[in-house]
Amino acid sequence: MNATTTPASGVRKAVVVGGNRIPFARAGGAYAHSSNQDMLTAALDGLVARFGLQDETIGEVAAGAVLKHSRDFNLTREAVLGSALSATTPAYDLQQACATGMEAVIGLSNKIKLGQLDSAIAGGVDSASDAPIAVSEGLRAILLDLNRAKTTVDKVRILARIRPKDLSPDAPSTGEPRTGLSMGEHQALTTAQWKISRLAQDELALASHKNLAAAYDRHFFDDLITPYRGLSRDSNLRADSTMEKLSTLKPVFGRNLGEAATMTAGNSTPLTDGASTVLLASEDWAAAHELPMLANVVDGEAGAVDFVHGKDGLLMAPAFAVPRLLARNGLTLADIDYFEIHEAFAGTVLSTLAAWEDEDFGKTRLGLDGAFGSVDRDKLNVNGSSLAAGHPFAATGGRLVATLAKMLHERGHVDGRPARGLISVCAAGGQGVVALLEAR
Amino acid sequence: MGDGTRAMKVQSDKYTEFVSRGLGKDLAKRLGLPQPAVLRRYEPGAPLVQGPVLVLGHSEGADAVAAVLLGWDQDVRRHATPKERLGAVVLVLDELAHPDQLSAPLREAGSSLRDLARNARVVSISRPALAEDSPEVAAARQGIDGIMRSLAKELRGGSTANGVLLANDIAADSPSAMSALRFFLSARSAFVDGQFLTAYATGEPVGQGTAESREAAEADWGQPLNGRVAVVTGAARGIGAAIARTLARDGAKVIAVDVPAAGDHLAQVANEVRGTALQLDVTATEAGGRILDHAAQRHGRLDIVVHNAGITRDKLLANMDSGRWDSVVAVNIASQLRMNQAFLASSHFASHPRIISVASTSGIAGNRGQTNYAASKAGVIGMVRATAPLLSGRGGTVNAVAPGFIETDMTAKIPFATREVARRLNSLQQGGKPEDVAEAVAYFAQAAAAGVTANILRVCGQNLVGQ
């Protein structure tokens, strides 16, 4: 195995310069009246201020939101125009559910590696508070007909078609279109399938809060976060949480499972508002701008499972994507120094770890000789993750990449080679995106 | 850039606006009410002085100073011309031997005062009285102190009186002394009144010399901090934000520092001044090191340090708890001492470095309920004087500005009547602006002020309390 992990081809490196996010806020809280554009602009402006990028033309800015108003068809470009960046910075929206931020980082990094871009900003934003509410399908059809009507008589006739039921709004849900089940109900099935205990889930949730609080206390986030609307820490963080408090919470998902119902509001992420950004660059661009280089974006991999007909849970795609990513880079779980496994639910993380430790899963599903391997829990989400910070869907990827890049840079070398970090993010639709980073 | 450019929410001085024209002006005059003037403030490209400059004094030094003023393209007079609106009077009294010698030049100056334009300047250039002087010389020199502080109280219409002191027998037209003269003449010193700046060393010539170099010199006076790297603590709002803007306007690259909780305002200021934001608690032990790392990484150097971060936790001493006392001392003085140690030990802070601390008139005159704050701010003054010798070796200076009543978000919280009284208790009969403090800070940061060190400059409109 090579001492440093470099891609096979002769492409150049893409580095993480740094990141900026606003503190994440529980839905309906501090950012209840902030739009996606407001929050993404604030996150961008904080990044610009941190690195002195005022009036700079960045190669590309790519970001997105999962819950998005139709008026925000050019959300990222509009945020760029409202920021201190040069107005000649191109931007585009993308969306891959909760993996949006990860896909933005990987896609832009690949363009940098190929020499198409010298600099880029990846980002993501979501507001569960300012979610779009649509009119009902019935009313929508009537309004469109009304728009097409030419005479007053026609207009009156069309308006007369409106019935009371048409007036109830159509709010977005986290339900899967093909199963009608919410993400939590899906995970509850997976959690039961892998026999993850309530205790294990609560322990993971507690560790997330403790680790995040400790990171704040040692000023780890001073150069990763810019306060917004009076918030300087994630509002979901409960530094004083205890196992006793977590154990008193009643299950909210999988209640029809009876005794096997283990998922509570404490070990599931709440609906959250927030935005994040990551500054990516070629080594030359970073050096020319006298900017730090925290980590290389080594490689990325997407995966998906057939959660509708197959036996895999909705959020289990990373269990397949990570083995492929590591194999391609000649690595095993033992070669990774930090794991950032997105805590959509404590059960998601623990189900994934259980699958990797399962011999049968390794042999029959991953095509290996035995179990894929174990994750050293001391290396897992060491500065907290989504259970404590919250999870504004598209913003989580940027949070993870910037946080991990800083951790890797601080760690430096392990056994004479750069420290390595793995990020795993599950997403709606049975998808997942994972990535490999390396310290500089 | 979003609302990054939004103005500070500073209480406007409605009274000054009201009495400056029309009915209000007439009314105030009849009733004998204070009539504060609208002060002229610095704008790049505006004339240094509004009108001819009368240079009084018969020494060689006076001739030399007049020559420097001519070099600055000023309309210089060596004798008063009655009925001419003067922009400034410069009194050069660098060879005084006895108080008897004060009479003639001062009466000549006095006869010109009625001809002063609004926002005019009277600046003396003399030598400090020292213990080793003969009693006659010391009496004459100290006399200037009383004259200028009294004259400052007599002048109206936004005019001010200040003095330059020539220490260590330096010549009247030394570059350092001339930088102080230029500051006092300019609109940069709008809210500085009845004060003295002491020049201890000659300094390098800037903005003088041959005609060929004059164009470049003018550019230097317009962008005196070009290419310099400055850090400003407490830069998210108020006086600190104004300092960041002023240093950037004068050409410096600004690193804006404030506590992480103030990061959103800090980012706005950093983006406005095209600088960088560094979220940092100055009381952290590694604060100085982190500032140096940031400056070295982004700019390869650090030239100017402005210690502005400060807090108040007022309480009568009888009711003071350790929390209030310790936090004020930790932020306002202990942090500066610790950071200065780091800066002084760094090779990145070695090229004509400048340290400017923000003290307070409370640290000079004292203030009820502020024993802790006054301890910290008087401490800053002591620190500045003792740090000056440590910096002089590398061509550096350290000075402090002591703001009086400045219109900020903080003073806007003072109850109306108290605030209205506090505003009028100075010779200019109004509160200063954060920009006034910032101009004084920016002056000390200039290369031209190389010999001006260990000074505590009050920016208070000559507040009635203290010196």
Automatic annotation (TrEMBL), chain A:
Keywords noted in UniProt? Acyltransferase, Transferase
Q: Which GO terms describe its molecular function?
A: acetyl-CoA C-acetyltransferase activity
One Pfam match, given by its short name, reads: Thiolase_C
Top-level taxon of the source organism: Bacteria
TM regions (residue ranges) = none
Q: Where is the Thiolase C-terminal domain?
A: 312-438
Q: Where is the Thiolase N-terminal domain?
A: 15-284
Q: What is its EC number?
A: 2.3.1.9
**Of which family is this protein a member?**
Belongs to the thiolase-like superfamily. Thiolase family.
Q: What is this protein called?
A: Acetyl-CoA C-acetyltransferase
Species of origin? Arthrobacter silviterrae
